[in-house]
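Action item from last meeting closed. Structure (347 res):
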C-alpha cells in the first residue's frame, strides 16, 4: 500500500500477478474474500473526514503468457489487453469506484497497444466516477510527463523547482526497494529527517508526495515503516497547516539560508507564509532572505506560544532577521523540521 497525502492507494495488481484464467478454485475463493475486504476498506476510508480512496493497477505482468505472446508479435496483437488488462480495469472502477487510479507498468508499449485512450474516454464520460476521478500519467511508454491529471514522470521524481502541471513524487521508505526486503539494514531506510526533507521539497514546488511501504508476505507493516509513518503523522498533527491545502509561494526555497522551503495559505485576510526549516538555527538569530516584511509582519514558531521578534535584514531591501529566544527543551514540541509562520508580508 502507498499513502498519497490523505489518499491511501490500494495495491490491487502489480507486474508479477496472475490472471483469473490461471487461478485454482481455492484461489478464486480467496479473491472473493479479498474483493469484499477491498470494498470494506474503501468504505472505511471514505468515512474519515477529508480522505479519498485510490487504487494502483499495473497494465502489464512480467511473465503472463498472453503478454509475452503480444510482445513477441511486436504488439501487433492485443490478446493480453483484451482478455486481462482492460476487463480488470473496468471491473476495478465498477467495484471500488476509486477517486484515484494510479496506473503503472506501461513502459514497454505505447498507449495504442494498451487501448488507454478508449478506457480513459469511458472513465471521464460514462463511468460511475466520471465527475470525481483523477489519474496519473502512466498509460503508455509515450505518456509520462505528457498526459494525465497529475504527472509522476519517473519514480522518485523531485525537480525541486515549481512545475506548471500538477505532479507527484512517488517514493519509498526503503531506499532500495518498493517491496519488503528481509536483508535490508537500518541505513537502507529513510530517516524521519530525510522523509520530512523530501516532503518539504515536494510540497513547496506544488507536488503531491506518495509514500510507499512494502508489507511482508502476510500483510504486516514492519516496525521501522510504522515508526516513520507515525513520526510523520505526529509532525503533521502539529504542522499540517503548512502542508494540507497549501499552495506554492513566490519563492520555493530561501535565497539566503539553505535548507528552508516555503509554502503558503491564502485567505481573505491575506497570505500566510510557512518557512519549513530543516536544521535548527545554530545561533540566536535566524536569517530569511526571501520575505519582504512590513510594519504589520508577525512571526511565530508553530507550537511555541509567543510571537518572535524580528528586524529587517540589515543592508538589504528584502529579508528579515528573526531572533530565537532561549527555549527550554520542554517547550520545543517539534523534534524535526520546524515551521515558522509569517504574516503581513509584502510578497
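Sequence:
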Amino acid at each position: 500500500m502507498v499513502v498519497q497525502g490523505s489518499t491511501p492507494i490500494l495495491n490491487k495488481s502489480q507486474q508479477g500477478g496472475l490472471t483469473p484464467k490461471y487461478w485454482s478454485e481455492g484461489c478464486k475463493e480467496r479473491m472473493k474474500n479479498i474483493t469484499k475486504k477491498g470494498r470494506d476498506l474503501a468504505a472505511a476510508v471514505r468515512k474519515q473526514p477529508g480522505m479519498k480512496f485510490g487504487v494502483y493497477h499495473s497494465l502489464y505482468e512480467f511473465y503472463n503468457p498472453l503478454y509475452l505472446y503480444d510482445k513477441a508479435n511486436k504488439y501487433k496483437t492485443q490478446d493480453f489487453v483484451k482478455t486481462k488488462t482492460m476487463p480488470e480495469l473496468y471491473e476495478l472502477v465498477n467495484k471500488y469506484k476509486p477517486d484515484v487510479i494510479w496506473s503503472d507498468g506501461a513502459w514497454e508499449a505505447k498507449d495504442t497497444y494498451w487501448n488507454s485512450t478508449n478506457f480513459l474516454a469511458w472513465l471521464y464520460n460514462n463511468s460511475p466516477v466520471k465527475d470525481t476521478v483523477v489519474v496519473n500519467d502512466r498509460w503508455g511508454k509515450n505518456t509520462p510527463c505528457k498526459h494525465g491529471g497529475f504527472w509522476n514522470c519517473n519514480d522518485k521524481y523531485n525537480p525541486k523547482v515549481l512545475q506548471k502541471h500538477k505532479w507527484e513524487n512517488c517514493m519509498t521508505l526503503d531506499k532500495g526497494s518498493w517491496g519488503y526486503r528481509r536483508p535490508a539494514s537500518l541505513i537502507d531506510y529513510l530517516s524521519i529527517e530525510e522523509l520530512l526533507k523530501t516532503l518539504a521539497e515536494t510540497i513547496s514546488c506544488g507536488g503531491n508526495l506518495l509514500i510507499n511501504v512494502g508489507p511482508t508476505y502476510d500483510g504486516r507493516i514492519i516496525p521501522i515503516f510504522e515508526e516513520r509513518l507515525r513520526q510523520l503523522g505526529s509532525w503533521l498533527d502539529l504542522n499540517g497547516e503548512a502542508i494540507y491545502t497549501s499552495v506554492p509561494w513566490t519563492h520555493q526555497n530561501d535565497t539566503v539560508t539553505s535548507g528552508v522551503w516555503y509554502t503558503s495559505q491564502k485567505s481573505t485576510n491575506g497570505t500566510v507564509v510557512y518557512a519549513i526549516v530543516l536544521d535548527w538555527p545554530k545561533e540566536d538569530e535566524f536569517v530569511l532572505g526571501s520575505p519582504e516584511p512590513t510594519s504589520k509582519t508577525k512571526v511565530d514558531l508553530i507550537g511555541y506560544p509567543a510571537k518572535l521578534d524580528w528586524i529587517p535584514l540589515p543592508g538589504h531591501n528584502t529579508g528579515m532577521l528573526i531572533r530565537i529566544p532561549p527555549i527550554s527543551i520542554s517547550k520545543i514540541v517539534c523534534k524535526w523540521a520546524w515551521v515558522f509562520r509569517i504574516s503581513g508580508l509584502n510578497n
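Note appended to the action item: Confidence is low (pLDDT under 50) at residues 16-23.
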